[in-house]
Amino acid sequence: VQLQASGGGLVQAGDSLKLSCAASGRPYSSSVLGWFRQAPGKEREFVAAIRWGSGLTYYTDSVKGRFTISKTNAENSVNLQMNSLKPEDTAVYCCAYSSYGRIWQAQGYEYWGQGTQVTVSS
Asked: Which residues are registered as beta bridge partners of 20?
């Protein structure tokens, strides 16, 4: 599985951005697609994930109510709509694919896309 992420950029606090991640093939219904981020000098952290089959979504507490993950079946892609962005959201965002349906831990994802930089200025 190859993943292609896009949509990062430089915005001001309070603005919105939408990230997209396209998979090279149709994800299995049991799979999970997720977004992780890593800020300079910090550990990689889970942001959001969606179960391909059911559409169930999961978020880390710091983005609940601001970020929305969704999928587009026809394009084999997932999107991360990020609203009310804060400077602390600045990071490299990566999408990832878990065949085993893992959610929270990066170790549960076998395939990773390249990162896309999101920078939020204050």
From this structure: 6, 79
Distance of alpha carbon 83 from alpha carbon 17, whole angstroms: 7
Q: Which two tokens stand for residue 10?
A: 């430089």
Nearest CA to 79 out of 48, 37, 38 is that of: 48
Backbone conformation region of residue 71, classed left if phi is above 0, alpha if psi is from -120 to 50, else beta: beta
Residue 59, H or E segment: strand 57-59
53-77 in b/e burial notation, b at 16+ Cβ within 10 A?
Answer: eeeeebbbeebeeebbbebeeeebb
pLDDT at 10: 98
For the chain, the residue count is 122
Q: What's the confidence (pLDDT) of residue 101?
A: 86
40 contacts 96 by C-beta, under 8 angstroms: no
Per-residue pLDDT tens digits for 33-91: 999 999 999 999 999 999 999 999 999 999 999 999 999 988 899 999 999 999 999 99
